[in-house]
Amino acid sequence: MNTATQVFDDAEKGSSLWHDAWLRLRKNKLAVFGGGVLLFMVVVALLTPWLAPYSYEAQNLDLGATPPSAAHWLGTDIFGRDLLTQIMYGGRISLAVGFIATAVALLIGVTWGAIAGYVGGRVDAVMMRLVDILYALPFMIFIVLLMVVFGRNILLLFLAIGAVEWLTMARIMRSQVQSLRQQEFVEAAVSVGLSPAAIIRKHVVPNALGPIIVYTTLTIPSVMLLEAFLSFLGLGIQPPATSWGLLISYGAETMEEYPWLLIFPGCALTLTLFSLNFLGDGLRDALDVRGSKD
Amino acid sequence: MLRFILMRVLQALPVIFVVITATFFLVRSAPGGPFDQEKVVIPEVKKALEAQYRLDLPLHEQYFAYLGDLAQGDLGPSFKYPGRSVNEILFSGLPVTAELGLYALMIALIIGVTAGVVASLRPNTAQDYVPMSLAMIGICMPSFLLGPLLVLVFGIWLDWLPITGWGDIPGDKILPALTLGSAYAAYIARLSRAGMLEILSQDYIRTARAKGLPEWRVVTQHALRGGLIPVIAFLGPAFAGLLAGSFVVETIFQIPGLGRFYVQAAFNRDYTMILGTTVFLSSLIVFFNLVSDIIAAWLNPRLRHQLSGGGS
After folding, report:
1. Mean pLDDT, residues B30-57
2. B40: which DSSP letter?
3. Which structural domains are found in chain A, ordered by start?
4. Cys staple from B155: which of A3, A69, A135, B163, with CB 3.0 to 4.6 Å?
5. From CA A91, how far away is CA A125, in angstroms rounded?
């Protein structure tokens, strides 16, 4: 009897689903590792101005490119700049692009999908047909085009990448909303006279959170990859700012003489992408997104 | 089936139209005319040039004239290389990129399907974990990092393979194709593993085993056909990715293909070239998406009804 009320109390708190998911996630070693690395990267990126061993602009032309040593843990580049410092500052930009562009995508995608799924009918058909058409566009080519036409501007880069990535988000959100809309608690909310906007905000979005979180985690690495791709081609981040993609591109030019300039920035990027993917996969299993019928 | 193909084609046409229109006005709205940065040109010459490129007409007339040319398959002259047409440049690069893409796709399919099928046969054992970990590395290792690393190891340190060029020295096609194909090998491995796992748990596979078929025949004759559908559906989008990937790979290995021309045109602000290449590549991608959809629907009749059943 006692245990029965206990279970009931837990259910009433409404935290058991998230608690279970957290327990499942904690058991997944790769996901925990990914989360740990990611946390570390974010903290380092936030504290870079205080943590960086050297100043970002400091050059030492007499020193030139040196392999890793006690003074410069990851070596220096051809201008004698400390590579660790460069990687730390580059990481700030790479991570910022990843998070901000994903946030843009999240905002557009969730709003679009929620409206289409909730309103349904003709509005839904038009909105989703538009998504279908945009989906078929070769966006990689368009982003290159945008960067050429409007100059190479970081803000535009955020927007352009965000504008590409919202499509899948909108599709996921729409199918979630469509299935949630038929649930009784939404009907109940309608019957007490809540406005559609309030229903979407208070009842639909929180219940669709699982797939959104999972997809968000998996969008960040693909966005970071896109930024690095553009920077590598010279169409993304412009000097004097730097990013991991740009550092890799410099490293590739001089790798024959100074291979560490390619290898360390490459490790930073790959490790971060790795962590995000592991965390995303782990979250997918923990929140049981497949099983919950997407 | 015919209805399905027709529906798909009708959906693809507006996409291509949107691409052409959007690209045209984007490129035309770019700041600065094509001849602005050149040394001062005599007004008469400039006028003649502008007339040649139809820049003296109002914008909407330029647009319709461009559409007219496109309908005849003419992408116009290049801004940067006077005397050469965009068509010429495109078609000199196309065979190179097509060959590179083909090799990359072959590598991706052979490695990817083998790894995925092998992993799916004994899930959650070393036979599964090893190929899937490699696949994860393949996905997280972008081509612009993998390419230089391969060059460093096999081209410079071991000195086994040439590091630039295309078709000049034997073996110089190996590294570019490998660089371009590896990420797709990784995706295909994951897709084919997931697809195979789902099929292998079906009743008809159990029946096939129960009637005493050897395991390799169960896999090759019964499971593969269904298990590889996700891979085939992936090939259309993969093609778009291969083209974008060729931008990087052709730049790294200095291969005279479409991707390199596109990036160069982007740097040179060769507007007609950008416009022409974008329209051409986009149409190509839309076309390949169409073909991959049709093949997927042919293999899986259920999909056909879902997609052409009116609703979205």
Report:
1. 65
2. P
3. 41-48+79-293 (1.10.3720.10)
4. B163
5. 41
Q: Of B179, B166, B158, nearest to B256 (Cα)? A: B166
Residue whose pair of structure tokens reads 């199918």 in the numeric block = A175
* Angle, vertex CA A232, rays to CA A30 and CA A212, nearest 5: 40
Specify the CATH architecture of the domain B107-268: Orthogonal Bundle (1.10)
φ and ψ at A134, to 5 degrees? -60, -35
User: Quick check: B311 pLDDT over 50?
Assistant: no
Both tokens assigned to A245: 């993609």
Closest in A136, A142, A269 to B289, CB measured? A136
Contact residues for A174 (Cβ-Cβ < 8 A; gap 6+): A112, A113, A114, A116, A117, A124, A128
User: Closest Cα of chain B to A217: distance in Å?
Assistant: 14
* Cβ A260 vs Cβ A69: under 8 Å: no
Beta bridge partners of A254: none
* Dist CA B155 CA B148 (whole Å): 9
The DSSP call for residue B222 is: I
Chain A positions in Cβ-Cβ contact with residue B22 (cut-off 8 Å): 142
Least CB–CB distance from B269: residue in A124, A148, A221: A148
- Residue A199's CB: how many other CB atoms inside 10 A? 19
Give pLDDT tens digits for B131-159: 888 888 887 788 888 888 888 888 878 87
B147 CB neighbour count, 10 Å cutoff:
26
Which has the closest alpha carbon to B171: B183, B161, B181, B159?
A: B161
Given a cut of 50, the residues of chain A with pLDDT beneath it are 1, 10-11, 291-294
Cross-strand partners of B77: B85
Distance between CA atoms of B298 and B295, rounded to whole angstroms? 5
| Phi, then psi, of B131 in degrees rounded to 5 | -65, -35
Residues of chain B found within 8 Å of residue A147, distances taken between Cβ atoms: 266
* Residue of B42, B98, B143 whose CA lies nearest to B256: B98
Average pLDDT over residues B228-232: 80
pTM, entire model: 0.77
Whole-angstrom Cα distance, residue B266 to residue B275? 10
Identify the burial level of B142 via C-beta atoms within 10 angstroms of its C-beta, where 0-12 means exposed, 13-18 middle and 19 or more buried.
Answer: buried
Taking CA atoms, A217 is separated from A22, A126, A240, A274, in Å, by: 15, 29, 29, 12
Residue spans per domain, chain B? 107-268
Nearest in space to B273 (alpha carbons), one of B76, B125, B114 = B76
Coil, strand or helix at B85: strand
Which residues on A lie below 8 Å from B18 (Cβ)?
A: 133, 137
pLDDT in tens, B59-115: 777 788 778 777 777 777 777 676 677 788 888 888 888 888 888 889 889 998 888
User: What's at B262, amino acid-wise?
Assistant: Y
Residue in A with minimal Cα distance to B312: A125
Contact A256 B12 (CB under 8 A): no
Please report residues of B whose CB lies closer than 8 A to that of A137.
15, 18-19, 282
3-state DSSP call for residue A288? coil
pLDDT single digits (tens) B245-272: 788 888 888 888 888 888 887 777 777 7
